[in-house]
Amino acid sequence: MNRLFVIKIGGNVLDHPDALEKFLHDFSSIKEPKVLIHGGGKIATKIGNQLGIESNYIQGRRITDAATLDLVTMVYGGLVNKQIVASLQKLGCNALGLTGADANMIKAVKRPVKDIDYGYVGDIKQDSVNTSLLYFLLKQNTVPVFAPLTHADGKMLNTNADTIASVLSVAMSKHFDVRLIFCFEKKGVLQDVNDLDSVIRHLPRKLYEDLLGKKAFVDGILPKLENAYAAIHAGVKEVLIGEASDLVKNTGQETEGTLITL
Q1: Each residue of 42-52: pLDDT tens digit?
Q2: Is the pTM of the predicted complex or chain greater than 0.90?
């Protein structure tokens, strides 16, 4: 099978113009089929403050009321997405900006209210990706760039970008050998959080469980790791967690980040 890179970037890249410029240059140089998923939370918060829309969080997660939904649709699907697409076009990378609503790419359901009402937040079910169109775009050398938005019942829904990256990776694993790459602020998963050079280069499930039992990981990395193994068990060949500046190396055989396999 041909390879596909599904790459997710967050605020540590988007909030710094020089870092974003380098990242997009590196991203555009990847010859294999590729998909980009971006966040943009800090930019949305900044513009929301300018518009008088207050950001509300519970346990670190944004509450998406009606005004906030308009805000994130505008910022994620418009400003951030189209700036990235325009930059990639300048670099000769034929990018196409998308949300889940465009061409029914990613359907979701509004998160049900349990203990917390998160508002207009989307949860994605299995078989919710328009894989046939996504496959067609990739075969036409078009590079999809996804904003973290899905849709249901005529409404846009704010959706976690890591989740979108994982769902797209699983959906396309039927057609490609997928490497899902999460770009974040460190070189990789650290065995010792106080030692930035203690990157675990290869983290199969058994080693992960051994280290987890020894409480080697800080809480912040645990959701990414669990998402990574969930994606692996659902058909994704590899997941890599690493720094955005190492993207080119992390699309090769000798990676700088943490490569996660079964």
Answers
A1: 999 999 999 99
A2: yes
